[in-house]
Amino acid sequence: MKASDLQGRAVVSLKEAKIEGRVDDVLLDLPARRVRGVRLKGVLFFGGQTIMDSLIVSIGTDAITIQEPQGAPPEKDTKDLVLLSQVIGTRLVSHAGTLLGMVRDVLIDPAQLQITGFEIEGIEPQTTGLWILHADPRLVYGKDLIVVPNDLAPGGQNSPPAPVS
After folding, report:
1. Enclosing H/E stretch for 78
2. pTM for the complete prediction?
3. Of 129 and 106, which is predicted with more confidence?
4. Which residues contact 103 (CB under 8 A, 6 or more apart)?
5. What would the mean pLDDT of 23-51 be, rounded to a whole number?
6. In this structure, are residues 11 and 20 in contact, taking their beta carbons and an 8 Å threshold?
7. Is the Cβ–Cβ distance between 153 and 98 less than 8 Å?
């Protein structure tokens, strides 16, 4: 599933039997390849509530269920996380220095809250179109770039791009 599919999805408290809000963004831990939580839509100029992964019971087709809402998580729990909205548009470059494209979406396993890959929009002739980059521990994540080992880049030995239809 695409992480962006979570945006707008209702978050339901099982203990209180009520909708706590709707997902505005997804919190990601890229090096650990994990979904760490969701941020709910805020009101006017106020940011929304953050629901950490420890509270998530299930990600269903229509709603995300949680045990019960809690106060804001400590800053130490969120300081190294990035938002999906910050990852989309991030450029990828290979170890060889070839610009491969940019992140169009993040692919997740909703049952395990794992990042499984990235949907990439290629921008060079050899990478034109959409392709999937599998989440790999050798990817290096920076603020503005993701660095991809050559063998994972399109045309590399271990991972030819999987076209997206």
Report:
1. helix 75-78
2. 0.88
3. 106
4. 87, 88, 89, 90, 92, 118, 119, 120, 121, 146
5. 87
6. yes
7. yes
Pair 63, 12: CB distance under 8 Å: yes
As given in the structure block, the two tokens for residue 18 are 């009520």
3 phi, psi to nearest 5 deg:
-60, -35
Q: Which domains does the chain have, with CATH numbers?
A: 3-84 (2.30.30.240), 86-159 (3.90.50.10)
Contact assessment for residue 61 and residue 15, using Cβ atoms and an 8 Å cutoff: no
Q: Which helix (H) or strand (E) holds 55?
A: none
Which among 1, 4, 6 has a CA at the least distance from the CA of 105?
4
CA–CA distance, 84 with 90 (Å, rounded to integer) = 10
Specify the 3-state DSSP secondary structure of 130: strand
Q: Which token pair is 127?
A: 């990478």
The pLDDT-based confidence of 140 (bands split at 50, 70, 90) is: very high
Distance CA 153, CA 160 (A): 7
